[in-house]
Amino acid sequence: MRIALVGGTVIDGTGASASAKTTVVIEGSKIAEVTQQTQFSQDVKVFDVSGKTVMPGLIDTHVHFGVWFQWLISQQAVPLSYLMAKTALHMRRALETGVTTARDLGGLEVGFVQAQSDGLIPGPRLHTGLVIIQATNGLTDIMPGVGGTITPQGLTAFLPGLPSPWADGVAGVRAKVREVLRFGAQVVKVANNAVPWSKTYLRPDRPLFTLEEMEAIVDEAHRAGAKVCCHVVGYESTQATIEALKAGVDLLDHAPLLDDECIEEMVKRKTWYCPMFSIIEFHAHRNPDLSVRPIAAKAFELTRESFRKALEAGVRVCMGTDQAIETGWQGNEMAIMAENGMTPMQSIVTSTLAGAQCMGMDGLVGSLEVGKEADLLVVDGETLKDLRTLADPKNLFLVMQAGKPVSGPLAAEFSYQVPENLNLLPVRPTKRAW
């Protein structure tokens, strides 16, 4: 049966002007029409969404649904199954608050991706990088008694399905990329420096890998058809950033300090940029460690300057929040981008179609175009006038994924749909066919 959402203001995610009093027709999991038609035959279920905004589901290209699995030793007070349940909860909450597609860049075992795809766990469509590849003494490799507020993971086992993140030397990093991909990663995540507030006497801005190591990581990933996302957060030096760019990474995460050389390389190489204002804002205002706040505040101002420069130069930008525990960060991120050089429409495209392009999923999701999956939001309010309406789940009249209602008041008006292809029998091992 077809479904018609009639009379709303449609923002299709492509950057085209909003279309008032427009109808989106859904058949099965797909968008069948975007039309001005308002009258339909009796076999079409019609829902009046007049006065509301219809737009693509949000795409968050940088989340951490299972962040605790990166330092499992610090979670020993609770059973592993409890942590699994929390991870599933955060996936469901993200979907219910408008994130229909996401990329997890550290901590999420591939079983969660498979479970979501098979309908066992509600959540965004997922890609995972499994772990953050880093050098010894890297981003999360903190030894006990030497500083740091995170219990170290270096002396403990990892969640089954997650390889250790550390690798050194050209041969070592090649092997690590192969291992991560063997464990099921769809994308490779690497960290080329620490964080500005690192509790260490060592220079946190320094590159963690040599240029040769970074080149090997990128080459090995690209040989397999996987993209490389690189964490760089230096705010006094761009050395780690420029070396990552010259090595050919596909995306820079954070990158608060971008000089002219960095911008030139990003434009030339068509590198994606994910600034993640919201997480820096959190550290600047709400981090319980008060010593972090002034450093983060400086990083926030640097990010604003770099973001504006990147926009003016035509750098490709996608939206990410770097967390998945609290809800509403996506709307906040979009609003901050609009306050720092983007138009509201550009911010929406950045958080929908651009995210899909960055993840290589734009043939499937990211815009309300005929033939794509019906991942969409019906928002109670004028989103273009106030992007922060997307930060409050109460404004979501309907969240839909693949043509199925997920949450919102309108979801209750749909008939119950049994999940398809739901295999509840024990999974039996099968011989891998090559």
Short description:
With 434 residues, the protein is of the alpha/beta class. It has 11 helices and 17 strands.
Describe the structure.
By secondary structure, this protein is of the alpha/beta class. It has 2 domains: 2-56 and 368-413, Urease, subunit C, domain 1 (Roll), CATH 2.30.40.10; 58-327, Metal-dependent hydrolases (TIM Barrel, Alpha-Beta Barrel), CATH 3.20.20. The protein contains 11 helices and 17 strands. Strands 1, 2, 3, 4, 5, 15, 16 and 17 form an 8-stranded mixed beta sheet that branches. Helix 3 (170-182) runs parallel beside helix 4, helix 7 packs antiparallel against helix 8 and helix 9 (329-339) crosses helix 10. It is globular. 49% of the residues are buried.
Layout of helices and strands, plus pairs?
Elements lengths: L1 E9 L8 E9 L2 E6 L8 E5 L4 E4 L1 E6 L16 H17 L2 E6 L5 H8 L7 E4 L3 E2 L36 H13 L4 E5 L19 H13 L3 E6 L6 H9 L3 E4 L5 H10 L2 E3 L2 H9 L6 H22 L2 E2 L11 H11 L4 H7 L2 H7 L16 E4 L16 E6 L2 E4 L27
Parallel strand pairs: 1-4, 1-5, 6-7, 7-8, 9-10, 10-11, 11-12, 12-13, 13-14
Antiparallel strand pairs: 1-2, 2-3, 5-15, 15-16, 16-17
